[in-house]
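User: Can you fold this complex?
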Amino acid sequence: MTSRSARVACALAALWLLALTAGCRAEGTPEPSPNDPSSVMLIEQPKKHDGTDVKFIGEVIGEVMRRGDMAWLHINDDPYYLMNVEEGAQLGGYNSGMAVWLDAELTQKIAYYGDYKHEGDVVEVAGVFNAACAEHGGDMDIHAKSLEMVRVGHVVVDPVHPWKIAWAIGLSLITAGVGALTRLSRDRPIDARR
Amino acid sequence: MLLRPRLEDHLVIGKYTGKIIIGVGLLMVVPLLTSVVLAEWDTVLDFVISVAACLIFGFSTQLLCRTERDLSWSHGMVVASGSWIVATVLGALPHWLSGHAGSYLDAMFDVMSGYTTTGLYLLQDLDHISHGLNMWRHLLTYAGGQGIVVVALTFLFKGAAGAYTAYVGEGKDERLLPNVIQTARAIWFVSLTWLAVGTAALAVTGMVLGQEPLRAVLHGLWVFMGAWSTGGFAPQSYNTLYYHSLGYELVTIVIMIAGSFNFALHWAVWTGNRKELLKNVETISFAVTLSFTVLIATFALAKAGVYPDAMALFRKVFYQLVSGHTTTGFSSIYVRAFVTQWGPIGLMATTMAMAIGASACSTGGGIKGIRMGVISKALLQDIRRAISPERAVITAKIHHIKDVALGDGVVRSAMLITIAYLSLYGLTAIVGTLHGYDFLQSAFEGVSAASNTGLSCGVTSPSMPSVMKVLYILAMWLGRLEFMSVFALGGHLLSMVRGRG
Amino acid sequence: MRAVQPRERGLARRERWPLYAAGLLAETRFVLALTAVAFLMAVVAKAVF
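Assistant: Here's the predicted assembly.
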């Protein structure tokens, strides 16, 4: 390789790296948190809000974990609390939310928990924020006294993209072809090729 | 003098790299099947495309690079480091196709983070990703923990003597059994036994904590993989804070620490030499440095009055420090809480623990316990020399499975790699600071990437400058492969340009 | 390959499992001992401050 072709290779590599950084979705303003203080503010200034009453709205995520008469919920007030990425929401950073400790009875009205196939219910809880909860080994949490339904969640239809079907079929055929060729050539001794 | 590589060299490197990529493609069949079973059809297509891409690459190299030559030392090194890059580029396809990655670079960041068992991630809206993609994230961290070369060695290489060089190139150099392929299988045996026991323990705990059986088993499997491979990925964005349970924390602590042990130590303990746990230079070094950093953080946080009682203080400090020291990256506090609650001393203690890291020939990263042991013994030896009569012969030895005399060569190579790690830590910290981040925070995050830990204090994010993403990818790669094989790849590329024909 | 296979099965031979289990438990005990030390530190630290 000459130094000129090395330079060309370097330039190509740089271009490739640049292409890698290109976003795959249109940028815009992500959905802001409905809360004041939001989960981000609570985490950024835990001392300021410690022990205060807060109202917290967000999407219920994952599942309810019952512990006797009480239960844990996780409520996200991030850019995806109304619509998630699987439904076509634009990317807006990491998930963000708060752990909520409440009476297990209150969780019975929850119908949908957010995951790949569901956009969870949006609920509003009210209770006390703890920066480092004594009852729960120092966890940052909200001990809620009430839970109100704001919006019932729904099933997210798993949309199969047609272009992916085309690519999947095309690439599978190529794989089969190359695989068969590899198989055939394996039987031939290496020297015969040269 | 650099010799320009000949066609044969390229052929041999291409052939073995291809074999490893076929291994990666076969690995993707697991998440593919997961998605089929759970009827996640769009994710199924993502994995069909990705498996096909890996197999096309692998088969093509087998077709084009036909040679009977075995791997030499330099080939093995180049194959180890090069295949990690190719595996990252192709392994990122499912992440990118899922639509949760901001760019292909972000997808590659996550995959390199997985293979190197780091645990930093840039995927967005993690709480809504498919089970298939979650399986892939955790499987690649599990496979990366054993080493993707080890994976290929176990299943694809048929007794190639030179395969040992690729194995060493991946940062492992212990022979548990006389033959390298037997060693690879013994490593798998230990890992799979722990997988069965650990997943069962976590799944049962999860069910007791209120999870549905299917979710408890999947979370158990994934959290096990994150803990054992000292990876730190978890299925929810809350990481292990999600479980709110002392029991779950204790089980993961046991798995994290066991995962950070040298496989040779596991093998010794499992074959009856249980006293080795108390005599081994790495377990002693780990116990000392872990306790020291826990002590600093415990007293600092107690003084600051962050946590209300001893139990909370113990649970939070010990968990984050074990996670940092074993280079896992699980976290039972919010990411930003390192800054907003723990403060500078907590940050520094955790950074120190991450920098030292796990044991050699384990799934973990960092400078490694054995080097800490060697360097501190050498220091003591020199001090004893200085205060002894001139004629006295001062010898030192370290105990790792058997007693090993501490020669200058051993100390030298331990020092060199340690300096390389410290330089990399310094570089990532400086680049972070130059981009406007607080110095302590960028040091924390840089050390976390380069030691393959994955704890974050908030510097890593999808909006981080691309330069830093690329730097962190390189730091994770260099740190995991312990520099030498990456330097060998660099030398190989240089010789292609500047070498004499 | 044929020569290797009996050895592989050797890894998982039934009579070896008690030894493996004892090893695994020994590792767990080691971790729990470290955990106990950390807990003591937290108790002392809380008593001091």
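Chain B has a mean pLDDT of 91. The interface with chain C takes residues 158-159, 181-182, 185-186, 189, 193-194, 197, 250, 253-254, 257-258, 261, 266, 269-272, 274, 277-278, 283, 287, 290-291, 294-295, 298-299, 301-303, 305, 309-311, 313-314, 317-318, 321 of chain B (CB under 8 Å).
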